[in-house]
């Protein structure tokens, strides 16, 4: 009998509670990997978009022309580009109706801060699930292990002479739950730490751009 078949047999012969624990861990692991791959693509795109926009913004092009180019696109702007679009739009609107430079600048900064908050919320989407999966999966697996071992020792009370061969299958199937808990937790923890760091760096870039753009707007209206 092969090792793989032995593991499959142990899972198939596990108690109902242990099977449910394993099923929960498989679902957690599957959804975690979906988030990991999706988040990887989202963050890579966000960084590319930020790099491309910064190249355009600091290339010396007029802000009016840059805004017209962005606003003419059919899709909604995101990231740094979106912060620029809403900020410049509000700046132009307020500038037409007021000569108070502080009022105009504060209005533009306010809408940019709102846009930044939305971007932060979007970037951090699904990260809490990875954190939760990484912290709880080992305990879920441990629960299955404890339950399986408890059943194994309880079964020994019905026999006159206990042997290792009688206990081993129950303990083995129980330990599989612990292994599955670790298998679900480790990738989730690694991904959460990595993506949290990337999100923080992107947020810092957005915030730095917001401050630099605010300074440019202030000079234009002064």
Automatic annotation (TrEMBL):
Transmembrane segments: 16-37, 127-150, 170-192
Keyword annotations from UniProtKB, A to Z: Cell cycle, Cell division, Cell inner membrane, Cell membrane, Membrane, Transmembrane, Transmembrane helix
Primary site of residence: membrane
Pfam family, one: MotA_ExbB
Residue ranges of domain MotA/TolQ/ExbB proton channel in the record: 83-207
Localisation per UniProt entry: Cell inner membrane; Cell membrane
Family that this chain belongs to: Belongs to the ExbB/TolQ family.
SUBUNIT field: The Tol-Pal system is composed of five core proteins: the inner membrane proteins TolA, TolQ and TolR, the periplasmic protein TolB and the outer membrane protein Pal. They form a network linking the inner and outer membranes and the peptidoglycan layer.
Name of protein: Tol-Pal system protein TolQ
Gene for this chain: tolQ_2
């Amino acid at each position: 009998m092969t090792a793989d078949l032995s593991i499959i047999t142990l899972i198939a012969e596990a108690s109902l509670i242990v099977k449910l624990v394993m099923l929960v861990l498989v679902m957690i692991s599957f959804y975690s990997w979906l988030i990991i791959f999706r988040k990887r693509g989202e963050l890579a795109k966000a960084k590319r978009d930020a790099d491309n926009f910064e190249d355009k913004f600091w290339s010396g092009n007029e802000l009016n022309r840059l805004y017209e180019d962005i606003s003419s696109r059919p899709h909604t702007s995101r990231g740094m580009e979106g912060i620029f679009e809403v900020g410049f739009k509000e700046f132009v609107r307020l500038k037409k109706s007021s000569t108070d430079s502080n009022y105009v600048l504060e209005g533009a900064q306010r809408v940019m801060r709102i846009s930044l908050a939305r971007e932060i919320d979007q970037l951090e989407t699904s990260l809490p699930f990875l954190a939760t999966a990484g912290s709880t999966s080992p305990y879920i697996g441990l629960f299955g292990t404890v339950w399986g071992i408890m059943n194994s020792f309880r079964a020994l009370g019905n026999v006159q002479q206990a042997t290792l061969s009688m206990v081993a299958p129950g303990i083995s199937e129980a330990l599989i739950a612990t292994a599955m808990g670790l298998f679900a937790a480790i990738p989730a923890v690694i991904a959460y730490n990595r993506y949290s760091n990337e999100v923080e760096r992107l947020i810092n870039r957005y915030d730095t751009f917001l401050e630099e753009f605010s300074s440019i707007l202030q000079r234009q209206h002064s």
